[in-house]
Amino acid sequence: IIPRYLHGWDELEPTIIGSIAQGMSILLLGKHGCGKTSFGRFVSEALSNGEELKLIKYSMDKENLISMVGIPNADALKQGKID
Question: CA-to-CA distance for 34 and 75, rounded, in angstroms?
Fold first, then answer.
């Protein structure tokens, strides 16, 4: 599935394809320009069977991290719970 010019992604391909096949979502993290969007597009096209799929891009910075994962409840964490 992965084009030859996306170097380094071939090691991750089986894990990512397996996760998608099981209905799991994937989150690609990496530096700007490392091929995350290109990889997502190629995998999406390969698995789409002609259907139109949505590719969601989310730009992550410190402020967006809080909006994505939230701020943990310190008291709940002390009790071994995630709240």
Answer: 39
Q: Do residues 19 and 26 make contact, with C-beta atoms less than 8 angstroms apart?
A: yes
Nearest to 47 by CA among 81, 66, 24, 64: 24
Residues 6+ apart with CB under 8 A from 35: 6, 8, 9
Average pLDDT of each block of 10 consecutive residues along the chain (83 residues)?
Answer: 68 82 82 82 78 72 66 77 69
Say if 3 falls within a structural domain: no
Residue 83 included in any domain: no
- Residue 53: both structure tokens together: 């799929």
Nearest to 53 by CA among 25, 18, 74: 25
Number of domains comprising the chain: 1
- Give the number of other CB atoms < 10 A from CB of residue 20: 15
